[in-house]
Amino acid sequence: MHMKAKLFLFGLVAALPAVAAETAAPAPARLVEHRKIWDAAPHNAFTDLVRFKDRWYCVFREGAGHVSPDGAVRVLTSDSGYWWESVARIEMPGYDLRDPKVSVMPNPPRLMLLGGATVREGKQPATESQSFVAISDDGKKWGKVFWVGPTNQWLWRVTWHRSNGLGVAYDVSPTSRSAKKYGTSLLLTKNGTDYDTLVADLYTESGPTEATLRFGEDDMLYCLQRRDGQTTNSALLGVSKKIPYSEWDWKDLGKYFGGPNFLQIPDGRWIAVGRLTNHGPDKKTKTVVCELDTAKAELKPLLDLPSGGDSSYPGLVWHDNLLWVSYYSSHEGKSAIYLARVKF
After folding, report:
1. For 168-186, how does the pLDDT look when each residue is reduced to its tens digit (9 = 90+)?
2. From 2.30.36.70, 3.40.50.10490, 3.30.70.240, 2.120.10.10, which CATH number describes the 26-343 domain?
């Protein structure tokens, strides 16, 4: 064999292990697609996402700004997730409607819209807040709005498990807000409109605010808890192993995590998405897809979504072997609603 041919073959064989090493360790998460789906209002934010009767539904707040007295809830729908249309807009004169969440109620399946209604002057802090619920059979026609839970207790998200809906409410009274003390309680509902308190003082230290609950095996309950304390603002992972969820083990995740949401994907991993600050080499604020290690209580960033500035509040759905994420961001100059699909 010619010497040059031998050298070529040797070089090819020597290169093979490097190629194999590269293909053996793919990125843990990959952005498959990302698109803006709505930016009609001056400020579009605080999303949630659900799949119901083979259609997508995305809800979010529209208003003049991040804090303004004119907040309303917009409901979009899509059959494919590509083209979206508005099917409802819920507003209440005199109230700023904020942080809408949408979930599928059982027996019979219906959509439940949950949010907070605040009374405020301009951009001033709210003087009163009340959670509200509306229910729909089709996402287009929404029934009567019900006030739910105690006044000045913000029920941020309800998670359904069998015939029960559980959620964490946090104290948003003017005195608690000014001191950043807050405090949370665990609420239970059977019908979406009537709520009982399971645990009055769920967590009370270092300003607990927004929280998402998810169920694991054997009815184990996990809580991903944001904190906004004056001295500590790192998120927490709470675990309660048995009904009635009165005993909790809380662990510090070591990172601020705004607009927290998470779910378990089919391979058993827990994936959390929310806002990280001072993130990455550029120390920016981003909406980030993370792996949540529930055993070690660690948040491991996997993928930065196209985002920046005023951003986060994701809705999460696992569908067709992909994680579908609705969120909002102002990285393109205006706070708008985005949809991303992520492959693991």
Report:
1. 999 999 887 777 778 999 9
2. 2.120.10.10
